[in-house]
From TrEMBL:
Protein name per the record: Abasic site processing protein
Organism: Allorhodopirellula solitaria
The family this protein is said to belong to: Belongs to the SOS response-associated peptidase family.
Record region (Disordered): 52-73, 223-242
GO molecular function: lyase activity; peptidase activity; single-stranded DNA binding
Organism superkingdom: Bacteria
EC number: 3.4.-.-
Keywords: Covalent protein-DNA linkage, DNA damage, DNA-binding, Hydrolase, Lyase, Protease
Enzyme class per UniProt: hydrolase
Length: 242
């Protein structure tokens, strides 16, 4: 699952690619980790696209957390109708721009390393996401904080080949508006949007670092997860939604 991604570009490029206006004055982070802030595209109350910061990782209890609990930074597409993601999948959708995403590799030529994947043409990758509201951490006067989670699918073939069995669910640019639609809708309608606009961008990889030697203790379990995922693809299709 994706716990780290990069956004190594500038605000102008992000806004141009997504056809959005920044809602706040904030700096783009080079690296995004759980609980850090990241720019996310949403529709505002007027139905206009805007770019605003959100915390990477939804809180507990359907998105409302009274403190720093586990960060639900990934949402399996197969779990879209389960708590705590169901409400957000129906009502609160977003698009998360990134230039690359980083995963541990457990097989193939990159095994034993952490690898970053980016588009071959250096364009932005547009990940489908959902968001929710986290309260002020016990301060009744603090404003609610928006937090988001990346929708995850069975790995893109290039990612699967290079050691990881899941990857973010990327959208083609033409599907951004359909995904962001502000009104509530049944999960099946959102699934059709994902199916129509799913992107399998040509990728390249960069080896970022060697993992600690203890990675070998996890390898057997990760290989089993890979094999289970490949078997599930036979039933659900490559997107995990058929």
């Amino acid at each position: 699952m994706c716990n780290r991604y990069q956004l190594r570009t500038n605000m102008h490029s992000v806004c141009r690619e997504l056809d959005v206006q920044p809602a706040f004055d904030f700096d783009l982070p080079d690296e995004v980790f759980p609980f850090s802030k990241a720019p996310v595209a949403v529709l505002n109350r007027e139905g206009d696209r805007e770019l605003r910061p959100m915390t990477f990782g939804m809180g507990k209890g359907g998105g409302r957390s009274s403190g720093r609990g586990p960060a639900l930074n990934n949402t399996r597409i197969e779990s879209r109708e389960k708590w705590p993601w169901k409400k957000s999948f129906e009502k609160y959708r977003c698009v998360v721009p990134m230039t690359s995403f980083r995963e541990p590799s457990y097989w193939g030529e990159t095994e034993g390393t952490e690898v970053s994947f980016s588009a071959t043409d250096d364009r932005l990758l547009l990940a489908a996401g959902i968001f929710s509201f986290r309260d002020g951490g016990g301060d009744d006067n603090a404003p609610a904080e928006l937090s988001m989670s990346l929708i995850m699918r069975p790995a893109l073939p290039f990612v699967m080949e290079h050691g990881h069995h899941r990857s973010p669910f990327f959208l083609r640019p033409g599907g951004v508006g359909a995904w962001l639609q502000r009104s509530a809708r049944p999960p099946d309608e959102s699934i059709e949007v994902l199916r129509e606009y799913a992107d399998d961008p040509p990728l390249v990889f960069q080896t970022d670092r060697q993992m600690a030697a203890s990675w070998t203790k996890r390898r057997a379990a990760k290989l089993q997860s890979r094999d289970d995922q490949l078997a599930e693809i036979e039933q659900t299709g490559p997107l995990g939604i058929d």
